[in-house]
Structure to design on (672 residues):
C-alpha cells in the first residue's frame, strides 16, 4: 500500500514516554517493549536514549546485559528448559539434547520455519519438581522426553 | 459448605493444578480455594478438603483421578490410595517448626480476612505503637541474619539505615531468587504475600523509609500476579498508603520486574538494575545502607529475612532468638531439591542435621540409586559427599569447612552424577552470569572452564589442576562480589571430596599450595 510509509512502526513511543521519570524507567520501558513486540526493535534505541537522557550506547548496553531482552523476534513458540543444577540432577542435560536433536537446532536457536525457539533458563523455582520447563508461558514440572515431543508437535502445526 | 483447596503455587500449577481445580469445580459446583503450597512438591497438585476433624489431603492428583476421587468420597475426606489423612498429622509437616511459613498453604493468599484470622498484622499493629529505635532493638535481639546467603546481621543494617540522615530512604526487597535448588522466596510470595508486605512496612517504620520496591525475577510470573494483587488489597486495607494502619506514617510499595540476570541477586547489582541500568556490581563502600537506591539510604533484604520480621515483632525478638543454635538464631526454610524422593520445603530451627533433611524429610534419591553428593547453598555452594551428612545446618559449621548455607537450598545428586562436569559447570555458569566488571570473574570463569575441559579430556591433568588451583585463589581473593569470589567453592569441593572425578587419587584443598 502506498501509505505504508505513514503506518506507525513498531517503535512504541507511548511505551517509552510512559515510564520517563519513574525509578528504573528504562528497564520498565524495555520490559514493556519486549512483552508487546516479542523483541526490542533497534528503531527504539534512539527514542529510548532521548527519553531517558542517556547515550545510545548505554541503551544498547542495557539491552545486551539482560537475557530477557532480544534484538530479533523469537519463534512463534518458545520452549525454555531449565539448565541449572537441580534439574541437571534429574536429567535436564539429556532432555535438552533430545529436544535440540529432534528439531535440528542449537540451544538458543529458532527452527528455520520460525515456529519454535528453544532457550536455556536458569531456574524456574521448580527445583523439587524437575526437570522443569516453560512451554509457551506455561510452567511444566517433571518434564519427560514424551512431554517435550508432544509440545514440539503441537507447536509445529 | 464444603471447602476444597487446590494450590496456585507454581510447583502445583506446573503439575496441572489449574486443570484439576477447574474439573473439581465443574463436577461439584463448589468454589475451589486456591491456597499456597504446603511445600510437599512430590504430592502436587495436593488437594485438601475440610472435614469435621480437620483438613484431609490427597495427592498427587492428576486430571484423570478427579472423577474417581469425588465418586470415592474425597469431599467427605474418605480413604483412598491417594489420601494422606489429616494434613497436620503428616510426618513431613508435623516435624517442622514453621514460624515464617506458618500460614503458607493454609490460607487463601489473597484474603486479608484469612491473613488476620491466622495471626497476620499482629506485628505491624505492635510496630505502629513503638519508636523506630524500639523496632530496631527487637530485630537486634532476634539475632536475625540475612537469609539471602550472606548471613549479615540484620540489626546492624537496620541501625545503620535508621541512623542515616536523608530526605528519602528506601526498603528494597531482593526477590531475585536465582539459586538453583531454592524456591522459598517464590513459595512465600505466592502463598502468603501479605507477610512480605507486612515485613516491609515494619522495616519502613523501623528505619524511617516511606517507599519500597520488590525486585522480582521475571522467571516467577505467578509470584508477580499474586504480589501485585496483594499490594492492591493492602492499599485498600490501609496496610499501605499515606497513613499505615493509622500511624500517620506513609509507606508505598510496588513490584519491579527484573529481566533474567542472575547477578541482580547481588544487592548492588540489583540497585543498578532498579535504577534502569546494566546490573553491574558496585564497589563497597559506600554501603547501600548509606548510599543505595538513587544514592539514598536503602535497606536491602532478601524475601525470607523480611518475612521473619512480622513474627519477630509480634512475638518478640527473644522468642525468635530462642530457636536455632549458636550465632545461627531462628528458623530457616530449607529446600530439598534435585534428585530427591520427597522434595519440598522444610522450615526448621538451625541445628537440624543435613542427614535429617536429606533422609528423614527427603527420603533419599528419587531414582532410588545411591546418593553421591548434595550441593548446599546454590550454584556458589559446595558439593558435600554422601558420607558427610551428619553436620548441623548452621552458618558457622558450614563456613568451617569452606561451604555455606546460602539461601538454604539442598540439591541431591545420585551416583550417576559426573562431578568433573559439575565443576566445569560452575565456571560456565559464572561465565554466563558474570556482570563483567572485575577481571578475576569475567576472565577467570572462561579460563576456568577451558582448563577444566582439558582436565576432563585427560590432558596434562596435574599441571592443569595446579593452574586451576591458582586461578581459584585469584578469583576468591580478587573478585568484587560473591559471584566470582564464591564460584571457587563448588569447584574446590569437587577437588577436595571427589578427587577421582578429576583423575587424582586423593583430595586436597585447592589454593593452599597443593601440599
Amino acid at each position: 500500500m502506498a501509505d505504508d510509509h505513514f503506518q506507525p512502526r513498531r517503535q512504541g513511543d507511548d511505551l517509552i514516554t510512559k515510564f520517563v521519570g519513574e525509578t528504573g524507567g528504562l528497564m520498565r520501558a524495555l520490559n514493556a517493549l519486549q512483552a508487546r513486540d516479542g523483541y526490542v526493535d533497534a528503531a527504539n534505541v534512539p527514542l529510548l536514549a532521548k527519553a531517558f537522557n542517556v547515550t545510545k550506547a548505554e541503551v544498547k548496553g542495557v539491552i545486551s546485559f539482560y537475557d530477557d531482552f532480544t534484538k530479533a523476534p523469537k519463534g512463534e513458540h518458545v520452549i525454555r528448559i531449565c539448565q541449572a543444577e537441580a534439574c541437571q540432577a534429574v536429567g535436564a542435560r539429556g532432555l535438552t539434547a533430545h529436544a535440540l536433536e529432534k528439531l535440528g537446532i542449537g540451544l538458543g536457536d529458532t527452527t528455520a520455519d520460525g515456529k519454535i525457539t528453544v532457550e536455556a533458563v536458569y531456574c524456574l523455582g521448580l527445583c523439587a519438581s524437575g526437570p522443569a520447563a516453560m512451554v509457551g508461558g506455561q510452567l511444566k514440572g517433571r518434564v519427560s522426553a514424551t512431554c517435550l515431543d508432544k509440545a514440539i508437535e503441537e507447536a509445529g502445526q | 459448605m464444603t471447602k476444597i483447596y487446590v494450590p496456585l503455587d507454581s510447583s502445583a500449577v506446573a503439575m496441572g493444578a489449574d486443570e484439576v481445580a477447574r474439573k473439581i469445580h465443574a463436577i461439584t459446583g463448589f468454589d475451589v480455594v486456591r491456597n499456597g503450597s504446603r511445600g510437599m512438591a512430590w504430592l502436587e497438585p495436593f488437594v485438601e478438603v475440610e472435614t469435621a476433624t480437620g483438613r484431609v489431603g490427597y495427592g498427587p492428583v492428576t486430571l484423570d483421578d478427579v472423577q474417581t476421587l469425588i465418586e470415592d468420597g474425597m469431599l467427605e475426606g474418605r480413604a483412598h490410595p491417594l489420601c494422606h489423612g489429616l494434613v497436620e498429622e503428616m510426618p513431613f509437616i508435623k516435624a517442622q517448626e514453621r514460624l515464617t511459613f506458618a500460614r503458607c498453604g493454609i490460607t487463601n493468599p489473597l484474603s486479608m480476612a484469612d491473613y488476620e484470622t491466622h495471626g497476620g498484622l499482629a506485628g505491624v499493629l505492635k510496630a505502629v505503637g513503638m519508636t523506630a529505635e524500639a523496632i530496631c532493638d527487637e530485630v537486634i535481639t532476634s539475632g536475625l541474619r540475612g537469609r539471602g546467603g550472606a548471613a549479615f546481621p540484620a540489626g546492624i543494617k537496620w541501625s545503620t539505615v535508621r541512623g542515616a540522615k536523608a530526605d528519602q530512604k528506601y526498603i528494597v526487597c531482593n526477590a531475585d531468587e536465582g539459586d538453583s535448588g531454592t524456591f522459598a522466596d517464590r513459595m512465600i510470595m505466592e502463598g502468603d504475600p501479605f507477610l512480605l508486605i507486612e515485613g516491609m512496612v515494619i522495616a519502613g517504620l523501623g528505619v524511617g523509609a516511606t517507599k519500597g520496591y520488590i525486585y522480582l525475577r521475571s522467571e516467577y510470573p505467578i509470584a508477580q500476579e499474586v504480589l501485585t494483587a496483594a499490594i492492591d488489597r493492602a492499599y485498600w486495607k490501609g496496610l499501605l498508603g499515606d497513613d499505615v494502619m493509622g500511624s500517620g506514617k506513609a509507606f508505598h510499595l510496588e513490584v519491579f520486574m527484573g529481566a533474567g540476570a542472575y547477578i541482580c541477586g547481588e544487592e548492588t547489582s540489583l540497585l543498578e538494575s532498579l535504577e534502569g541500568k546494566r546490573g553491574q556490581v558496585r564497589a563497597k563502600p559506600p554501603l547501600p545502607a548509606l548510599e543505595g537506591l538513587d544514592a539514598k539510604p536503602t535497606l536491602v533484604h532478601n524475601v525470607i529475612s523480611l518475612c521473619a520480621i512480622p513474627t519477630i515483632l509480634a512475638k518478640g525478638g527473644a522468642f525468635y532468638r530462642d530457636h536455632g543454635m549458636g550465632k545461627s538464631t531462628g528458623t530457616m526454610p530449607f529446600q530439598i531439591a534435585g534428585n530427591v524422593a520427597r522434595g519440598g520445603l522444610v522450615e526448621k530451627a538451625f541445628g537440624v542435621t543435613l542427614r535429617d533433611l536429606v533422609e528423614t524429610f527427603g527420603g533419599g534419591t528419587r531414582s532410588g540409586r545411591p546418593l553421591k553428593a548434595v550441593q548446599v547453598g546454590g550454584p556458589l555452594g559446595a558439593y558435600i559427599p554422601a558420607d558427610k551428612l551428619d553436620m548441623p545446618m548452621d552458618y558457622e559449621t558450614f563456613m568451617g569447612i569452606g561451604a555455606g548455607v546460602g539461601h538454604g537450598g539442598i540439591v541431591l545428586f545420585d551416583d550417576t552424577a559426573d562431578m568433573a562436569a559439575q565443576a566445569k559447570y560452575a565456571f560456565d555458569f559464572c561465565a554466563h552470569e558474570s556482570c563483567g566488571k572485575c577481571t578475576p570473574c569475567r576472565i577467570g570463569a572462561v579460563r576456568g572452564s577451558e582448563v577444566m575441559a582439558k582436565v576432563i579430556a585427560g590432558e596434562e591433568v596435574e599441571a592443569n589442576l595446579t593452574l586451576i588451583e591458582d586461578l581459584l585463589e585469584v578469583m576468591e581473593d580478587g573478585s568484587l562480589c560473591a559471584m566470582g569470589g564464591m564460584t571457587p567453592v563448588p569447584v574446590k569441593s569437587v577437588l577436595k571430596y571427589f578427587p577421582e572425578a578429576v583423575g587424582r587419587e586423593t583430595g586436597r584443598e585447592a589454593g593452599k599450595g597443593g601440599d
